[in-house]
Design brief:
- Strand 6, helix 10 and strand 7 form a beta-alpha-beta unit.
- This protein is an alpha/beta fold and 411 residues long.
- It has 3 domains: 6-161, no CATH class; 165-311, Leucine-rich repeat, LRR (right-handed beta-alpha superhelix) (Alpha-Beta Horseshoe); 318-400, PDZ domain (Pdz3 Domain, Roll), CATH 2.30.42.10.
- The longest helix has 27 residues, at 138-164.
- The strands form 3 sheets. A 7-stranded mixed sheet has the order 1-2-3-4-5-6-7.
- It has 12 helices and 13 strands.
Amino acid sequence: MRASGDWCNCGRDRSKRILFAVFVLICPEFVTAQDNPSPQTTTTFSVSASEPTDEQLEGWVVDLGDADYSTRQFANIQLNLNMNRSIPIVIRSLESANGDQSDRLFQFLSSIAADPYTEYGELAYQAIVKIALLKTTSKAIRAQKILSVIVESQRESSLTRLRSLGVEIRDRTFQVISTKTEIKDALVIDSHFTGSASDIECLRWFNNIEFVRLEGPSISKEILKQISQLPHMKRLQLVHTDLTATDLEVLSDGPDLELLEVIYASFGNEAVEVLSNLPLWNKLYLFGTKVSMSGKRELEYKLDSVDVIVAKGGFLGVQCPPTSVIIDRVVNGGAADTAKLVRDDKILSINNIPVFVFDDLRRELANYGVGEEVSIEFERKSFIAPGEPLQKEIIQRQVILQARVETGQDR
């Protein structure tokens, strides 16, 4: 296991204290007065510098369950000094151990697993995971409780560090396929991020993240690979990145995605084969890429159960409810704002093509890129005087589409 820096170990002592407390709650029968010898009691051990035999190691493993505190302490020290050989023996012994012996072996493994960024910590952690997967046995239940403590401790210390590096994990509002959406526990890595791919290896502890947004040219293939390890990620946005079609291949080993949304990228039809082999099951939205309409048709054929949307990248800058084309919000500084469209205007057509719901508008605008001009016909209601009905006016304007303006990116 590659180390991720000293900060990964910052919660080590705290983890061990918490793990011991959990063992007191889970297994009170093995916490005796001998685990807390009196201050007047001093035990001196003679530690041999010679390599212990397998028989000695196996004996020390047995001694972990001894009734005598000093015997257990000596065994613990010896096993810790020889972890490369002792951990596999402890793991094997745990399979058949019961009672106090099982409790002591769990305690030994959990003290090492509390620091899962080391080679032996990872080995001990994975051993506990394997036991936890047995689901209903008493050992599995105990292992699951230990894992929950380790994960919570690692998540807490990791979150503090990630925030110091400019990573955000919190409730946010985003444009998702041009629709304003409230996202819970959204993960955002953008220009504020001052770390590297190895710094986000700790995201493995966050099983609550379903939405990820990666933004900016600093997003690398290595960062994308780390993100693909999130077990419950369902929606991924890639915004203004320099990722290539080949870079996207790392997503093939990740979780099944409900949505992949790419907003402005330089790849074209060479990405079709890669995209068609990704674990996508609902929507693929390519906005402002070089994928052509023939590429879109190929994606639709290969991803026959996926809604594929390919847009050239021209952005009008309005928000509408899904079931209408009445403007709910005009994005400040966008193309519609420049053309003096306002809230409550009802869009009727784009270049004489009628639109009735927001999807109609979005799909028609997909045919135009940044800097292209479109003719927009819309209906505006005007207030004349109290008691008088609103006056309807049909207006037609030429609008030059702009690059997409992101909203909801508050920090």
